[in-house]
Amino acid sequence: MSYKITSINREYLKQNIGIYSIICTHLESAPQNANIRKLQLDELVEMAKLEPSNKYIIFGDLNFTQTDETIKDFNYLEHNNDIPYIPDIYTYDSLINPNAIKPYRSNLDRFYSNFNTKYKITIYTEFDNPSDHYPIILDITI
Hints:
The chain has one helix at 34-49, and strands at 12-17, 20-26, 55-61, 75-77, 92-93, 105-106, 109-113, 119-123, 136-140. It contains 1 helix and 9 strands. The protein starts with 11 loop residues before the first strand and ends with a strand.
């Protein structure tokens, strides 16, 4: 579905599986579009409020470039919850991914949930990547 406000036709997909609602999205990119990203996220959060008994996971290329960007009332599922912690792994990493624009290194791809659960996130960097982002996988206990 399309966002109400988007400058470059960004969209999201929503799938309900029982009491779980999964939303995959690609938000507006670039630092100057932080205000548009916030409006897009507000739209998703309002959708979640219409189904208060559902447990939501929102994920995708969120393009968060500002330190204060987050999803209100949702938990950020950090990829560095592994033991042992492996520092310096990013979903967008120009130091090791030739498709990423130098000098940028960031976790633009993220998972958020409105419920607590055990999880593991893996960023796959060990293969030839046809994208500027590395794949990120969420393994979750429900």
